[in-house]
Amino acid sequence: MLDCDLLIIGAGPAGLFATYYAGMRGLDVVLVDSLTHLGGQVAALYPEKQIYDVAGFPAVRGRDLISGLVDQALSARPRILLDEECATLEDEPDGVVVTTTAGTTIRCGAVLITGGIGRFTPRPLPAVDQYAGGGIHRIVGPAGDYADHDVVVVGGGDSAVDWANMLAGAARTVTVVHRRDRFTAHESSVAQMHGGATRVITGAEVSEVCGEGTVRHLVVRDAKSGETEMIPASVVIPALGHIASLGPLTTWGLPIKARQIEVGTDMSTGRPRVFAAGDITDYPGKVRLMVVGFGEAATAVNNIAVLLRPGEELFPGHSSEMPRSLATAGTGV
């Protein structure tokens, strides 16, 4: 049994910032995520991409942003549970009890859900999913790691085209295989891909992955003619998108509409002691930007602090105006 003031579900950007801010308010935090790493979908899906809508950064690489957020969050000394999904929620007179799929029980004063798009799993790609060898990269590393590789990106959305453009100048060869004739990615990105060194194969699908121990070649089949071609590949990047699901959260009696949790101006969900922030929330006028999620996280934490400690100020003041002892409370700074 773990006891804490606040359980934060979801270790993406909003959850990491909420953890840090909760430390500033002197709250003891347990942070849980179903992934095996911190950083949510930014770390899992686009760690090397530039992000352009975070205040203070004209451009910041996803990996670097997450690194900074993790450093902030860890300064609050949270207890972290990875590769565990919160399954059940039970009310108590002065708190709630949450149990994870791994059997961990957490008793807390309040819950803050910052789960982004929820649990996400890659869309199936049978030929790749059945291959047991190495060379399948579902998370893309730094471009320099691919200098001596023949890379095949499978997909036609923004992620697929962005990966192809990023690696075109770094990898030995880059090939994009897309089962449709048209791409759904941003037009300028598609134009960049067609204008560069990337080979683009449309109207085709990967029918077989070949190689002992690691990928050596792919067999690609034309959807119309049925003709096949073997192309060199030492790295395959499946980029067909992901299937999102809120999982057990749908059984918690929360107001959910179209995979979003409806919240009030204080980020409360309507269920006692349960709050939500970030992309997983919805309300009139909602704008789905990362910076908005940061603000929602702070709003939620401040309201939770007052709930748990009646008599405290909702707004504790600007961090630059706080005594150092308060601004760094619980952070180890």
Concise structural overview:
Helices cover 23% and strands 29% of the residues. The protein is built from eight helices and 21 strands.
Report on this model:
It is a single chain. By secondary structure, this protein is an alpha/beta fold. The chain folds into 2 domains: 2-120 and 242-327, FAD/NAD(P)-binding domain, CATH 3.50.50; 124-238, FAD/NAD(P)-binding domain (3-Layer(bba) Sandwich). It is 23% helix and 29% strand. It has 8 helices and 21 strands. The strands form 6 sheets. Strands 1, 2, 5, 6, 7, 8 and 20 form a 7-stranded mixed beta sheet that branches. Helix 1 links the parallel strand 1 and strand 2. Helix 1 (13-24) packs parallel to helix 3 and helix 5 packs parallel to helix 6 (187-195). The protein is elongated and about 70 Å long.
CATH architecture of the largest domain: 3-Layer(bba) Sandwich
Give the termini distance in whole angstroms: 28 Å
Highest-level CATH class of the largest domain: Alpha Beta
Radius of gyration: 22 Å
Low-pLDDT ranges: 323-327, 329-333
Mean pLDDT: 90
Q: What is the number of strand segments?
A: 21
CATH homology-level superfamily of the largest domain: FAD/NAD(P)-binding domain
In total, the number of domains comes to 2
Keywords summarizing the entry:
333 residues; alpha/beta; FAD/NAD(P)-binding domain; 2 domains; 7-stranded mixed β-sheet; 4-stranded parallel β-sheet; 8 helices
Helices and strands in order:
Blueprint: E1 2-9, H1 13-24, E2 29-33, H2 40-45, E3 50-51, E4 60-61, H3 62-74, E5 79-82, E6 86-92, E7 95-100, E8 105-113, E9 119-122, H4 126-129, E10 150-154, H5 158-167, E11 173-178, H6 187-195, E12 199-202, E13 204-210, E14 217-222, E15 228-232, E16 235-238, E17 242-245, E18 256-257, E19 260-262, E20 274-276, E21 281-282, H7 290-308, H8 324-327
Parallel strand pairs: 1-2, 1-8, 2-5, 8-20, 10-11, 10-16, 11-12, 19-21
Antiparallel strand pairs: 3-4, 6-7, 7-8, 9-17, 13-14, 14-15, 18-19
Helix pairs in contact: 1-3, 1-7, 5-6
Subunit structure: Homodimer.
InterPro entries: FAD/NAD-bd_sf, FAD/NAD-binding_dom, Fd--NADP_Rdtase_type_2, Ferredoxin-NADP_redctase_2
Pfam families: Pyr_redox_2
